Amino acid sequence: MRKPRALAGPTQTPVAIAYFYKVKWGFQDEFIELFKRNHYPILEAQLKSGRLLSIEMYTPRFHGDGRGDWTFLTVLTYKNWQVVSDNRESTRLVKQLYPDQRLFKREEQRRFELLEAHWDTPLRPVEVK
């Protein structure tokens, strides 16, 4: 009989969160362009700092694939729950990376105007062995 693994505490366990976006029809390219320009550099800086462990981005492979609930997905794996709830680094990075805050806020507002829906889903790993 195999001995059960001890679970790591919340300060040690990585946390994966799926961020789903449903972009209005015809605006997918604009949404992705704004995401790459204004949001990805923040994520990339957090990856370099160790706050994030990985960044994955997806679009459905085929038009009309499945139920079509989402058109863009990011899966971010954070170092732990503590960094998920602490946004100080993100706030600092936004100011550092985007000195023209008016332009940044306007483009981020536009990115969210392009959405029909958005939701975040913290993921719980399932151990199979």
What does the model show?
The protein has one domain: Alpha-Beta Plaits (2-Layer Sandwich). The protein is 39% helix and 25% strand. The chain contains four helices and four strands, in the order E-H-E-E-H-H-H-E. It has helices at 28-49, 81-85, 88-97, 101-113, and strands at 15-23, 52-58, 72-78, 115-123. A four-stranded antiparallel sheet has the order 2-3-1-4.
Please specify the SSE layout and strand pairing:
Layout: E1 15-23, H1 28-49, E2 52-58, E3 72-78, H2 81-85, H3 88-97, H4 101-113, E4 115-123
Antiparallel strand pairs: 1-3, 1-4, 2-3
What's a quick, concise take on this entry?
By secondary structure, the chain is of the alpha+beta class. It contains 4 helices and 4 strands; from the N terminus they run E-H-E-E-H-H-H-E.
CATH architecture assignment name: 2-Layer Sandwich
Oligomer: single chain
The number of helical runs is: 4
Q: CATH first level: which class?
A: Alpha Beta
Distance between the termini: 12 Å
CATH topology (fold) name: Alpha-Beta Plaits
Low-confidence stretches: 1-8
Task: Offer a few descriptive terms.
single chain; disordered N terminus; 129 residues; 4 helices; alpha+beta; Alpha-Beta Plaits
